[in-house]
């Protein structure tokens, strides 16, 4: 059941990514570089936080 749910989620994600990619790309193109840097920094900090959290549970 878990594999089926993952496949459905993955297929929907792919569909939405294909549908909204042009609009998202245009939005990101219009954003000032400093905002893009803030978004990327936030993404990196979340990844580090996630990695440290799961590493500490091992």
Provide the fold topology.
Layout (H helix, E strand, L loop, with lengths): L1 H29 L2 H24 L2
Which key terms come to mind for this protein?
single chain; 58 residues; mainly alpha
> What is the domain tally?
1
User: Which percent band covers the strand fraction?
Assistant: under 5%
- Count, helices: 2
Helix content: over 70%
Mean pLDDT: 88
Oligomerization status of the protein chains? single chain
Shape: flat
Cα-based radius of gyration, to the nearest Å: 16 Å
The class by helix and strand makeup works out as mainly alpha
Number of strands: 0
Largest sheet: none
Compressed to H and E, one letter per element, the order equals HH
Low-confidence region ranges:
none
> What gap, in angstroms, lies between the N and C termini?
27 Å
């Amino acid at each position: 059941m878990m594999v089926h749910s993952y496949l459905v989620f993955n297929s929907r994600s792919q569909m939405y990514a294909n549908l909204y990619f042009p609009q998202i790309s245009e939005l990101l193109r219009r954003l000032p570089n400093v905002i893009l840097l803030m978004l990327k920094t936030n993404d990196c900090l979340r990844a580090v936080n996630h990695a440290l959290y799961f590493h500490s549970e091992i």
